[in-house]
């Protein structure tokens, strides 16, 4: 797996389309225990990313991710914009100046992105947020890479783990974000941000190997 800047921009473009296709699903998850705008927020954010990158020459992966992060931070009003924005900014910071990234870089990027989300949102695993999908994904990617599995296997393992993390949010009590206002009543519903996270990771896999 080697991704250059041009391919990364294509992947981000595809994420905007996939978010659009899943806007209703994301919004319905958020409507059950939040305010029902997660699909709209994510769609607005990734269309801003697309707009911001349309003239980028693809020469620096770090700059592409930084631009994406800035677009998300400044165009999304909801909690998820600054959180995903920080994730992309942090991911970009560990690949500054690189023309291509491989699966080891991806692991570093995901690690840094997750740290950024946790720092910005003060969330920990089991708080019923996107962190629950991201943490599982990172652990799976790390184990698979450490075991010497192929990049395809490693990224697939990360996607499956993210979806497992999403499923696990169903039984959790929300401790961060709007869903935390419902406390115990948030049990029985999956977290919208964990769903968008899993979807984004799946889109990356599909674009690379689908
Ligand atoms: P808002 O809640 O402002 O309407 P969104 O609906 O776009 O924003 O995003 C909600 C998602 O953001 C939640 O489902 C959760 O995954 C994530 N989230 C909210 N607050 C936090 C936080 N403090 N830390 C991590 N993730 C959070
Ligand atoms: Mg919302
Ligand atoms: Mg909102």
Automatic annotation (TrEMBL):
One of its GO terms (biological process) is glycerol catabolic process. This is phosphoenolpyruvate--glycerone phosphotransferase. The keyword Kinase applies. The lineage of its organism: Bacteria, Bacillati, Bacillota, Clostridia, Lachnospirales. Its EC number is 2.7.1.121. One of its GO terms (molecular function) is phosphoenolpyruvate-glycerone phosphotransferase activity. Keywords: Glycerol metabolism, Kinase, Transferase. Homodimer. The dihydroxyacetone kinase complex is composed of a homodimer of DhaM, a homodimer of DhaK and the subunit DhaL.
């Amino acid at each position: 797996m080697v991704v250059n800047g041009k391919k990364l921009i294509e992947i981000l473009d595809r994420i905007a389309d996939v978010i659009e296709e899943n806007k209703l699903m994301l919004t319905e998850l958020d409507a059950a225990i939040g305010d029902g705008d997660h699909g709209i927020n994510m769609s607005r954010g990734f269309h801003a990313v697309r707009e911001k990158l349309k003239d980028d020459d693809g020469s620096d992966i770090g700059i592409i991710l930084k631009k994406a992060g800035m677009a998300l931070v400044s165009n999304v009003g909801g909690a998820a914009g600054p959180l995903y924005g920080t994730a992309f900014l942090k991911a970009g910071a560990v690949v500054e100046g690189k023309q291509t990234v491989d699966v080891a870089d991806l692991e570093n990027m995901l690690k840094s992105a997750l740290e950024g989300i946790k720092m910005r949102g003060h969330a920990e695993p089991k708080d019923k947020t996107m962190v629950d999908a991201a943490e599982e994904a990172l652990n799976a990617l790390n184990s698979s890479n450490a075991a010497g599995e192929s990049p395809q296997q490693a990224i697939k393992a990360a996607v499956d783990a993210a979806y497992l993390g999403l499923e696990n949010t169903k039984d959790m009590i929300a401790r961060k974000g709007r869903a935390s206002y419902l406390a115990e009543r948030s049990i029985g519903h999956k977290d919208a941000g964990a769903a968008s996270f899993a979807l984004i990771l799946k889109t990356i896999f599909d674009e690379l190997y689908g």
